[in-house]
Amino acid sequence: MTKQSIFGRISTLVKANINSILDSAEDPQKMIDQLVRDYTNNIADAESAIAETIGNLRLLERDHQEDVQAAAEWGNKALAASRKADDLRANGSTADADKFDNLAKVALQRQISAENEAKTAEPQIASQTEIVDKLKSGLNTMKDKLGQLKTKRNELVARSKVAEAQTKVQDAVSSISVLDPTSELGRFEDKIRRQEAIAQGKAEIAADSIDAQFESLDDLGELTEVDARLAELKAGAAKPQEALEG
Question: Can you tell me which family this protein belongs to (predicted)?
Fold first, then answer.
């Protein structure tokens, strides 16, 4: 039952769809680490079970070989006893000949028994050999899957680090966005704009003051010209009066 349980686990693990498991996992890296541990443990269990199965197969094969050898040896002994009986019978020793014929029969019985044991073991050996071949193939497939898992894990770790770095960069860019009026740069820009507006206001005030001064100068010039003309009028009016008096 233990072997059968382990064999079932091998089949289940070999058929597992790794990608679908990873897609459904909240943390693929942790899931892969767990899968690597599970696969490693199950491979160790499978290797132990396969080693035991191979050991049993080798015992069967050894017993079968011993039965085959025993059958051949008993066959040789039966042949030797039979020939001895024929020689004795030819020489007129019928009693001794019968004795060796009986020994030949005993040897033949043991030969038949060894051959039967060998034949009985052959189907078991064939079955165990087929099982061992399948288990070795399944174990190799599991080891390939384990290699794929480890490769997938390394790939995910690398991708995770890249994604984390990209996230940090995006967060940094967002935090210093000059388009954000609530950011530090936005407030600093507002302050500079106010300072520029104040400077512009002062410049306009200064310009207005200078224009007023020039306007006052223009007014003064107009007044001076008016006075000059008035003086000319007065002078011109006085000249005709003087001519009449003369």
Answer: Belongs to the PspA/Vipp/IM30 family.
